[in-house]
């Protein structure tokens, strides 16, 4: 009777430890943002937030810049999510349900592009963007970020469609429905969890992206939050509390968005994997 | 995603041809394919082809349209460079540790959360937070937490008597890489644990029960039943972690820029500093090609292992 | 029911994609001229500085108010990747119209022909330019930039902690050691590879202050005995742990502003930034007490991008900046730096900041942080030198070997 009890206690301790490790850095970001100047450089660390310092959040927002950055990040992330899923669904469908000339090449290219580091592609893409007049626009960043997540999105969606029974769509086909209708009406609703998973991947990718954003956008009003935060890192000084406050506000929406969809993400992410 | 692993290359075994299938004309797949293919062609394949070309040239960042063809010079030079060999070694260490520890920790956490208890939903949600945190924010808080004088990490380590001399963690060739690894794994383990947790929950309960009924010990049950059914997921995660770790940039660049004395210089960091500090697009492209070849080997190797496992299972 | 909802969301998705496309088409704008007004962008890492950044933005607005055909707006390029970002853009024929560069990037950009020649755009004979810094703006008779800021290096010290400023190197070391206790450090300088450009600026004072030089104008002299002496001094201070090791400049400057660092060798631009962080700090400035009175200076030229479609208009801005009244304003914003032309400091400013003259008196003995004779290669030489010096700090090689290695690697680079 005693042993399971010990096991339970150990498990609780383990869970609390893991939670502590997972959450602490974000908590620390919050505490640092809310620590006064003198305490920040004191010999004893302040362990709890000083809410009298809350003005740092308001100041960061009131200046207007942080709001613009966050909005730009949101536009880029949402645009990337929509575009990459919009292109990824038909691609995943084609790869899953059809065999056609060049399929091997397409699949290999998709896997292959997953390995390309952004830093490698900055210079040729810059020239390309210049030619198409895409520099200094949120649209351009949506395009480039989509290109980088589209392969993984398409591959995950292909795995999800692979897992669907063919019978339903084939009977719909017999009833005379066109392939596009079949895809949109029958398959897409069934892979909703995987769509959520890919949405998260695409959203996070674009929300976090720095290298392209810093090089391709010149107008301060178009910069996303990743670049905006880097703007605070100065040669002569970095306002640590402000940086932490903005970082916290930059992190929070991503976390909330994730918590919101995480149930589907887990299901979708593993749709193919578990089956195998 | 394993499904994709198995089906992406229709070998001779999957010989079901569906010419004139009920799914429409032979042009139908191209209709679905075309928009995405065009997109990837323009934004990935064309720039990549340019990079392949650049890797055989001497080209300055300051004048990227003028290239001098130098054949294999860039490759000869980087492979002749002792620093580059160190970079390869550090990349290897970084990737292997990331993969092993991220998957291992992920599995441990997944096992911990697999049993039902009150508040498990909340715990599972909270654990995944690090994965959602943007890289630049993670780097900034990590730098601040590791600050030699005011960082909470050093204060904590000093308190328990394990303090690094001078507290200079990111500044020391010995501790910088471990610090970056810990930060990376902190960001990765939620992903692996969430994926492994759902794999664990897909293990048919009657199997484990049967094993326990037969009087098998916990360890034996884990190895014979649980491990067998989550193995494919583990393999897939390992592959993903490898590819992602090979291209990780922001975290390392913001925390150490590859220093001190090259102690954290991975291939991507080397690539970036060749291209943008030394302004040598040619050597940078050559470094990039080496990275791509390594990734290809990893993918080919993982497919080989997967096939072998399949054959064994049969 | 569920199917229905998803279908509706698909419709929404498609329409948002359409909006995104519309956005794409609309956002491809490029600045340039609209309705007879030419819009220019100006990139300067200084625009992100605490204290100075907001004031500089106001100064730009004054220009905009004075003009009806040309408007200049700041292009905020983050400091951590400033050089890389701007040079990538310029190399591909893009980038801001006006740029405030640091010397090493200025030299490589002008060598690569990315900077517009100014001889035909600006007639400098009209202005009373400071000769010592201005000579570095001209290459083979062609002018490529105008000094935006020239900022000599001096010793900043906390006047509450240090009653009498050290005047010799030994006193300097002594002061640094005696002040270091608990969470307070006697000194601070940059010593991490993550701050390569900063380390280069900081070691410059040690090399030149001990009589060394990076080159004699024809040959690199990285491993000369004088350089070794100067860098040994730098390393000794690092080894003596009188500096916050591993702390980046942004943080240790905050620490200086909070009274946790006693001394720092820094340039005049730092005055405003420090006050911006802590208006009450009681600090003072004296010349660097090293054996030889030679120190670095930050020369920051303002240049016109060769790729700019509006060079004439960009020159209009530079000419406006060179007008005496605007020079005075710029100088007051920049703090203890000097600007392109000879300006008089107002009596009020001198009363407020008596040590301003310390910086002004150093102009003749200050040198830009470039490698003479190898100007365009400075960033590459910098990378090699900093890498090897840090290897010595970390104890992987001894300093002499490190400098020999640096000399060899850098000589190969410059061919």
TrEMBL record, chain A:
It is found in: Cell membrane. Gene3D superfamilies: MetI-like (1.10.3720.10). Pfam families: BPD_transp_1. CDD domains: TM_PBP2 (cd06261). Keywords: Cell membrane, Membrane, Sugar transport, Transmembrane, Transmembrane helix, Transport. It comes from the Bacteria. It is a multi-pass membrane protein. The keyword Protein biosynthesis does not apply. The chain crosses the membrane at residues 12-30, 69-92, 104-129, 141-161, 182-204, 240-261. One of its GO terms (cellular component) is plasma membrane. Its main location: membrane. The keyword Transmembrane applies. Residues 70-261 form the ABC transmembrane type-1 domain. One of its GO terms (biological process) is transmembrane transport. PANTHER family: INNER MEMBRANE ABC TRANSPORTER PERMEASE PROTEIN YCJP, MALTOSE TRANSPORT SYSTEM PERMEASE-RELATED. Belongs to the binding-protein-dependent transport system permease family. This is Multiple sugar transport system permease protein. It comes from Nonomuraea maritima.
Automatic annotation (TrEMBL), chain B:
Residues 1-22 are annotated as: Disordered. GO terms for biological process: transmembrane transport. It is a multi-pass membrane protein. SUPFAM superfamilies: MalF N-terminal region-like, MetI-like. Its main location: membrane. It comes from the Bacteria. The chain crosses the membrane at residues 27-46, 88-113, 125-146, 175-203, 224-246, 281-306. Pfam families: BPD_transp_1. Belongs to the binding-protein-dependent transport system permease family. This is Multiple sugar transport system permease protein. It comes from Nonomuraea maritima.
From TrEMBL, chain C:
CDD domains: PBP2_TMBP_like. The keyword Transport applies. Keywords: Signal, Sugar transport, Transport. Residues 1-20 form the signal peptide. Pfam families: SBP_bac_8. This is Multiple sugar transport system substrate-binding protein. It comes from Nonomuraea maritima. The keyword Cell inner membrane does not apply.
């Amino acid at each position: 009777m005693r042993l399971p009890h010990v096991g339970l206690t150990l498990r609780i301790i383990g869970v609390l430890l893991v939670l502590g490790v997972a959450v602490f850095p974000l908590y620390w970001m919050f505490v640092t943002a809310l620590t006064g100047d003198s305490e920040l450089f004191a010999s004893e660390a302040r362990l709890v937030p000083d809410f009298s310092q809350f003005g740092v959040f308001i100041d960061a927002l009131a200046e207007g810049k942080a709001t613009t950055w966050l909005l730009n990040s949101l536009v880029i992330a949402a645009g990337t999510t929509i575009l990459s899923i919009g292109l990824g669904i038909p691609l995943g469908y084609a790869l899953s349900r059809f065999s056609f000339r060049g399929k091997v090449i397409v699949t290999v290219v998709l896997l292959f592009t997953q390995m390309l580091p952004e830093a490698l592609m900055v210079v040729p893409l810059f020239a390309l963007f210049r030619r198409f007049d895409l520099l200094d626009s949120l649209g351009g960043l949506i395009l480039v970020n989509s290109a980088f997540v589209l392969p993984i999105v398409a591959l995950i969606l292909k795995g999800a469609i692979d897992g669907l029974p063919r019978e339903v769509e084939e009977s719909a086909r017999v009833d005379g429905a066109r392939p596009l209708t079949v895809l949109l009406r029958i398959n897409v609703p069934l892979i909703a969890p995987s769509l959520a998973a890919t949405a998260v991947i695409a959203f996070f990718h674009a929300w976090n992206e720095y290298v392209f954003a810093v090089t391709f956008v010149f107008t301060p009003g178009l910069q996303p939050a990743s670049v905006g935060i880097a703007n605070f890192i100065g040669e002569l000084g970095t306002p640590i509390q402000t940086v932490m406050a903005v970082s916290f506000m930059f992190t929070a929406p991503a976390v909330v968005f994730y918590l919101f969809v995480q149930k589907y993400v887990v299901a979708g992410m593993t749709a193919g994997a578990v089956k195998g | 995603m394993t499904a994709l692993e198995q089906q992406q290359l229709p070998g001779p075994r999957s010989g079901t041809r569906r010419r004139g299938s009920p799914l429409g004309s032979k042009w139908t797949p191209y209709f679905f394919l075309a928009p995405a293919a065009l997109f990837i062609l323009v934004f990935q394949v064309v720039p990549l082809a340019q990079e392949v070309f650049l890797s055989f040239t001497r080209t300055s960042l300051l004048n990227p349209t003028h290239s001098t063809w130098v054949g294999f010079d860039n490759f000869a030079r980087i492979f002749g460079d002792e620093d580059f060999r160190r970079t390869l070694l550090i990349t290897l260490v970084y990737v292997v540790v990331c993969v092993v520890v991220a998957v291992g920790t992920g599995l441990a956490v997944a096992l911990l959360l697999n049993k039902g208890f009150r508040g498990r939903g909340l715990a599972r949600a909270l654990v995944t937070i690090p994965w959602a945190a943007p890289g630049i924010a993670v780097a900034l808080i990590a730098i601040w937490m590791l600050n030699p004088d005011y960082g909470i990490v050093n204060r904590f380590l000093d308190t328990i008597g394990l303090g690094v001399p001078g507290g200079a963690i990111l500044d020391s060739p010995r501790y910088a890489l471990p610090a970056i690894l810990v930060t990376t794994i902190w960001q990765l383990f939620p992903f692996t644990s969430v994926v492994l947790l759902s794999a664990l929950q897909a293990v048919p309960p009657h199997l484990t029960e049967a094993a326990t009924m037969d009087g098998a010990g916990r360890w034996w049950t884990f190895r014979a039943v649980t491990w067998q059914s989550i193995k494919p997921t583990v393999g897939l995660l390992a592959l993903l972690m490898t590819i992602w770790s090979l291209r990780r940039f922001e975290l390392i660049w913001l925390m150490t820029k590859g220093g001190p004395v090259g102690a954290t210089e991975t291939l991507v960091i080397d690539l970036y500093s060749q291209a943008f500090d030394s302004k040598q697009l040619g050597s940078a492209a050559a470094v990039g090609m080496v990275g791509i070849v390594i990734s290809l080997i990893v993918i080919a190797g993982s497919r080989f292992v997967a096939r072998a496992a399949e054959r064994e299972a049969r | 029911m569920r199917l229905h909802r998803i279908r509706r969301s698909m419709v929404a998705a498609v329409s948002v994609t359409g909006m995104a496309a519309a956005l794409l088409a609309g956002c491809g704008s490029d600045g340039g001229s609209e309705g007879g007004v030419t819009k220019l962008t100006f990139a300067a890492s200084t625009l992100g500085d605490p204290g100075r950044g907001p004031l500089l933005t106001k100064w730009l607005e004054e220009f905009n108010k004075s003009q009806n055909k040309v408007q200049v707006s700041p292009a905020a390029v983050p400091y951590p990747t400033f050089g890389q970002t701007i040079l990538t853009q310029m190399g591909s024929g893009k980038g801001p119209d006006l740029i405030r560069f640091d010397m090493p990037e200025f030299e490589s950009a002008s060598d690569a022909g990315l900077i517009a020649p100014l001889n035909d755009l600006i007639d400098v004979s009209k202005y009373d330019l400071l000769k010592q810094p201005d000579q570095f703006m001209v290459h083979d008779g062609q002018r490529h930039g105008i000094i935006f800021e020239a900022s000599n290096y001096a010793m900043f010290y906390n006047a509450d902690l240090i009653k009498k400023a050290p005047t010799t190197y030994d006193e300097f070391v002594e002061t640094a050691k005696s002040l270091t206790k608990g969470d307070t450090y006697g000194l601070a300088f940059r010593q991490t590879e993550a701050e390569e450009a900063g380390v280069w600026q900081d070691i410059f004072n040690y090399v030149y202050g001990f009589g060394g030089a990076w080159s004699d104008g024809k040959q690199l002299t990285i491993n000369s005995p004088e350089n070794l002496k100067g860098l040994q001094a730098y390393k000794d201070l690092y080894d003596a742990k009188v500096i916050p090791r591993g702390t980046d400049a942004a943080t240790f400057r905050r620490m200086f502003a909070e009274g946790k660092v006693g001394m720092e060798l820094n340039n005049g631009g730092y005055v405003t930034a420090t006050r911006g962080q802590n208006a009450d700090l009681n600090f003072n400035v004296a010349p660097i007490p090293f054996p030889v009175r030679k120190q670095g200076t930050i020369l920051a030229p303002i240049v016109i991008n060769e790729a700019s479609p509006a060079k004439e208009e960009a020159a209009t801005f530079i000419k406006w900046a060179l007008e005496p009244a605007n020079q005075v304003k710029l100088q007051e914003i920049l703090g203890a730096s000097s600007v392109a032309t000879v300006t008089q400091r107002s009596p009020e400013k001198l009363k407020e900041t008596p040590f301003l003259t310390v910086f002004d008196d150093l102009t003749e003995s200050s040198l830009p942080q470039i490698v003479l004779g190898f100007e365009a290669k400075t960033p590459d030489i910098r990378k090699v030198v900093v890498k090897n010096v840090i290897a010595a700090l970390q104890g992987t090689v001894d300093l002499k070997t490190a400098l020999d290695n640096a000399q060899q690697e850098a000589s190969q680079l410059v061919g």
